[in-house]
Amino acid sequence: MQVLRFLLSNARWWLEEYKFDGFRFDGVTSMMYTHHGLQMTFTGNYGEYFGFATDVDAVVYLMLVNDLIHGLYPDAVSIGEDVSGMPTFCIPVPDGGVGFDYRLHMAVADKWIELLKQSDESWKMGDIVHTLTNRRWLEKCVTYAESHDQALVGDKTIAFWLMDKDMYDFMALDRPSTPRIDRGIALHKMIRLVTMGLGGEGYLNFMGNEFGHPEWIDFPRGPQTLPTGKVLPGNNNSYDKCRRRFDLGDADFLRYRGMQEFDQAMQHLEEKYGFMTSEHQYVSRKHEEDKVIIFERGDLVFVFNFHWSNSFFDYRVGCSKPGKYKVALDSDDALFGGFSRLDHDVDYFTTVSLGSSVT
């Protein structure tokens, strides 16, 4: 009871003394189950969530702290990092839920790293869409393309997976680009936009992801001895990777600037149209041969061409609302480091095809 009172009072203290506007609860999967989620594959069967493996005391604590946070500060936000898919996780406590506002959609970032270790020619559009949309109905999620799990301690950022050592020599605008740089910048923008467009109701950047930071983060550390006796080597307490070069995104002479401009454009698009909080989300095409993904979110139609060599002309796109459509955001715009291959002055009008479907 003393520990419970301390934890609850601690949550209130940060809200009142430091004016925090919310909390992110790390690794709550480990709390909610006596097996801590280790060596468990959650399939969605309710017996996996509500049984003897459920740590009732931990779940009750999460309910209490969420009830306290929202009871004292109704505008505060609580986000839980859970990979198990615990039902009722984002249902309010008075309705019998755990009480979080959002779940971190952790599978998305892991999926991108998995795909980036393969050739993009082998990417499955249906697999990408399934990962982005695989969440419980009406449960709000915070999605992201990468975080510390992908970019810490010797791993690679998405940008470095895509462009590798070319980033050190060919990101200056006064030097010729390379096919790897051109492809990497294009895919980096598309990965971020499709994640934001289809992956949840909130979007999270991570320490330079918004402009394609090339290097990982590593903090000064010495050797570490594990309980098994195995010794992990340190980095000689080096500060070399213990920094972020945020000046890269602001440099007019580097290609990072265009990638950062694209991030700002994504945020402005969401601010203008509010597509992430729209209840209307419909995936109309996952074409494996064309490598095309098309979906509607709110009033917008998103069209992604992930093909490594093919461009498409007069491509028919199904949509639910008839009328005139215009380009709202183009990842190939020169402002974003693209090649401006789309004419933004063209209006696109829907037509009625066979079967009375609007295209």
TrEMBL record:
InterPro entries: A-amylase/branching_C, GH, Glyco_hydro_b. SUPFAM superfamilies: (Trans)glycosidases, Glycosyl hydrolase domain. This is Alpha-amylase/branching enzyme C-terminal all beta domain-containing protein. It comes from the Eukaryota. PANTHER family: 1,4-ALPHA-GLUCAN-BRANCHING ENZYME. GO terms for molecular function: 1,4-alpha-glucan branching enzyme activity; cation binding. One of its GO terms (biological process) is starch metabolic process. Gene3D superfamilies: Glycosidases (3.20.20.80), Golgi alpha-mannosidase II (2.60.40.1180). Pfam families: Alpha-amylase_C. One of its GO terms (cellular component) is cytoplasm. Residues 282-351 form the Alpha-amylase/branching enzyme C-terminal all beta domain.
